[in-house]
Amino acid sequence: MKKKAFLFDLDGVIVDTAKFHYLAWRNLAKEMNFDFTEEQNELFKGVSRVQSLEILLDLASYEATQEQKERWLIQKNEEYLKYIEAMDDSEILPDVVRVLNFLHEKNQGVALGSASKNARSILTKLNLIQKFEAIVDGNDVTAAKPDPEVFLKGGEALKIERTDCIVFEDSIAGVQAANAAGMVSIGIGEKDVLHEADYVFADFTEMSDAFLASLIEA
Ligand code: G6P
Ligand code: MG
Description:
With 218 residues, the protein is α/β, with parallel strands linked by helices. It has helices at 18-31, 38-41, 49-59, 66-85, 96-105, 119-125, 149-158, 172-180, 209-217; strands at residues 5-8, 109-113, 134-136, 165-169, 184-188, 199-201. Strands 3-2-1-4-5-6 form a six-stranded parallel β-sheet, sandwiched between helices. α6 (119-125) links the parallel β2 (109-113) and β3. α1 (18-31) packs antiparallel against α4. The mean pLDDT is 96. Residues 9, 11-13, 45-46, 170-171, 174 line the site of magnesium ion. 6-O-phosphono-alpha-D-glucopyranose binds at residues 11-12, 21, 44-49, 52, 77, 114-118, 138.
């Protein structure tokens, strides 16, 4: 059997943390007298913390000093971590564990490719960290998605050629990063949002073992 690398994004693919990011950003937005909507939150998916703040300041037309930005970044993360603290494995998205177990049974490479600097603590909290042979996160990259760096590093860590790497992503920027890396991109979410992906599934419950096997054999 061939050995491929399966690279998973974290937020929105493995765990439903987007709602916690949203709550924390929304509370920060209130300090800018800005009403941050869930639609606007789509723009934040896959985007680093620093860039997210820049987008928020832009949306709110708010000019902040460097010092204020730094304070807000800390404040946002502290609030986000409070939600994460209260989280348990019920937050793992449906069938993620089945897919991870299937890939392990088939001896495939499995790595994380996430923009989050909290990735390791979240995977530990969810008892999933042992399922990842390599973790590339927001602490390891200099260029954010849609730059392919995070996935290229994931493939390298597993010593698998980029054309043998398959990426699971819920964000537009992440799908673009996988495509830019020359990898197979699989969108998890809505087809019309993730239309640049090679395949799109609403979630992992729709992805059969037979489909995964076909990716391995391709
Ligand atoms: C992921 C999420 C983004 C988040 C980013 C950084 O890509 O989709 O919404 O801003 O990670 O996460 P962090 O945990 O480092 O703030
Ligand atoms: Mg994501």
